[in-house]
From TrEMBL:
Cleaved signal peptide residues: 1-27
Domain of life: Bacteria
The protein's name: Pilus assembly protein N-terminal domain-containing protein
Pfam families: T2SS-T3SS_pil_N
Source organism of this protein record: Mesorhizobium liriopis
Keywords noted in UniProt: Signal
Pilus formation protein N-terminal domain: residues covered: 28-98
Length: 142
């Protein structure tokens, strides 16, 4: 019986280790971007073609041959693929666009939602089309 218990403990430990490793592997392939913010991406070689899976979520522009500017336009997950002049893949990564929750407060009043930007004082923040649509969907589901 003691042998069965130790084997099950070992199996649980191995499963937890594998789960931790797979989580780290996924995190390395993800580029987090805040909504309405830009992030610089340095490339290993000159880019020729840039493909964004869903341009409503993120946009990319070329700063120079080896630098991209990635901008969060709407909430969600998409991907970016960068190819060189020969069609070889330079980069292919998932892009996650989310709100910067540390500097914002959401106020719920019955069916309405208001987002305040607190940098350092809380004021009504600029809302893009994607954020207005997201807030109206959240209000409708409540």
């Amino acid at each position: 019986m003691a042998r069965l218990v130790s084997f099950s403990h070992l199996a649980i430990k191995v499963a937890l280790c594998l789960a931790a490793v797979s989580t780290v592997a996924r995190a390395e392939g993800t580029i987090p971007v805040s909504l309405n913010q830009a992030k610089l991406l340095k490339l290993s070689r000159a880019a020729d073609t840039i493909v964004i899976g869903n341009p409503a979520i993120a946009d990319a522009s070329v700063q120079d041959a080896k630098t991209l500017v990635l901008t969060g336009k709407g909430f969600g997950i998409t991907n970016v693929v960068v190819l060189d002049a020969d069609g070889g893949t330079i980069m292919e990564q998932e892009v996650v666009v989310s709100r910067d929750d540390q500097r914002s407060v959401r106020v719920y009043r019955r069916a309405s939602v208001q987002t305040l930007s607190c940098t350092p004082y809380c004021e009504s923040s600029y809302k893009g089309e994607a954020e207005r649509a997201s807030e109206s969907e959240m209000s409708a589901s409540q």
